[in-house]
Write a structure and sequence with these properties.
Blueprint lengths: L2 H8 L8 H8 L3 E2 L1 E3 L19 H14 L1 E2 L2 H9 L8 E2 L2 E3 L3 H14 L4 E4 L11 H11 L5 H8 L7 H7 L5 H11 L3 H8 L5 H9 L3 E4 L12 H18 L6 E3 L9 H9 L5 E4 L11 E3 L1 E2 L8 H17 L8
Parallel strand pairs: 1-4, 2-5, 2-11, 3-4, 5-6, 6-7, 8-9, 9-10
The structure holds zinc ion.
Zinc ion binds next to loops.
Length: 335
């Protein structure tokens, strides 16, 4: 059983314990939840990847957070990293990955209304709808498959090494862009037209407006490729090129980087080089509540992982999971 399944089993029992008790047991008073999008309309480019909360679900999650934690400032987050991830106040700092249009149209207005600071991590290659992330291509194709004729599915499968389209689409990585484009052609889907008509990403102007409103803008790699499939040089190139874009176009108060997908299996030498060469001031992972040992690096809580649609349950489950792992001495990120 993987950790996701165990967390799903644990989540219904979280109602028996208060978050204050869980905070006290773990000592983690400062949490960093993250999402991608919030929407009341279906988003076929995301729906196969994670659960997109509605506006009322998102507001409910924020209200839970506001009841138990204070909204943190960017300076508080910086202080947290200097204090090895520990804080003596209950604080939360949300962030949002991939630079999707809902960040500008839906999320930022809610955060402003509630007086919450946050960070938005963008991929320069997608800004202004120049390119579609390979996972979004997969989601669009998976959503259209039920309307495709069996003969067309067969010809699409001829392009694939293992001839299984569902398996391929669920596992496609950045090396599969041209195969995804080939399948789209057979399915009669036009990714360029989708980018033009639907504008799934924010424009540079919209990102600049978020920064002017006091939000922190950071990067998330150039094109959201899988770092666990990339060489050390490729990873460093993705980090430095995206940070160059950030500094040139946005020039934020601090330079932040959120690892695409996960920081798991990223070699220590990448962190060490990025820190010595000052490629970033601060970096972020997605491992949930954990004791992090890497300098200038903080872990965030994935809120859309499917543990529960209620943010309160997701967060409480993270604490319980942290506690259970501590019994076996596994609550530290091993590097
Ligand atoms: Zn991402």
């Amino acid at each position: 059983m993987n950790s996701g399944s165990i967390k799903r089993l644990l989540s219904p029992f979280t109602g028996f314990i208060t978050v204050e008790k869980l905070i006290a047991y773990s000592g983690h008073r400062f949490i960093l939840p993250f999402w991608h999008a919030v929407s009341d309309v279906p988003l076929p480019h995301l729906s196969q990847l994670y659960r997109v909360p509605t506006v009322s679900e998102f507001e409910c999650d924020l209200d839970f957070l506001l009841k138990n934690y204070k909204p943190a400032s960017v300076e508080d987050v910086f202080g947290l990293a200097n204090n090895k991830g520990k804080s003596n106040q209950n604080l939360f700092f949300p962030s949002f990955d991939d630079g999707l249009a809902e960040c500008y149209h839906v999320i930022a207005p809610i955060l402003k209304k509630k007086g919450i600071q946050a960070a938005f991590f963008i991929n320069p290659a997608f800004v202004g709808n120049k390119m579609l992330f390979h996972r979004l291509k997969s989601s669009l194709l998976l959503n259209s498959i039920s309307q495709i004729k069996p003969s067309e599915i067969k010809s699409a499968e001829k392009l694939l090494p293992n001839r299984n389209i569902h398996q391929f689409l669920h596992k496609a990585t950045f090396t599969d862009h041209s195969l995804l484009d080939g399948i789209a052609e057979i399915f009669g889907l036009d990714f360029e037209l989708f980018l033009k008509q639907k504008q799934p990403y924010m424009s540079l102007q919209q990102i600049k407006e978020l920064q002017a409103d006091g939000f922190l803008i950071g990067t998330h790699g150039m094109d959201h490729r899988e770092f666990f499939l990339s060489s050390e040089d490729e990873i460093l190139e993705q980090i430095s090129a995206s940070m160059e874009f950030l500094i040139r176009e946005i020039n934020p108060q601090i330079n932040t980087f959120a690892f695409p997908f996960t920081d798991f299996k990223v070699p220590n030498s990448v962190f060490e080089k990025a820190n010595t060469e000052r490629l970033w001031d601060l970096s972020f992972g997605t491992a949930g509540i954990k004791d992090e040992t890497m300098k200038n690096h903080l872990q965030r809580i994935p809120m859309e992982s499917g543990v529960s649609k209620e943010g309160e349950k997701v967060i409480k489950t993270e604490y319980i999971w942290y506690y259970l792992k501590s019994v076996f001495g596994k609550n530290k990120v091993r590097r």
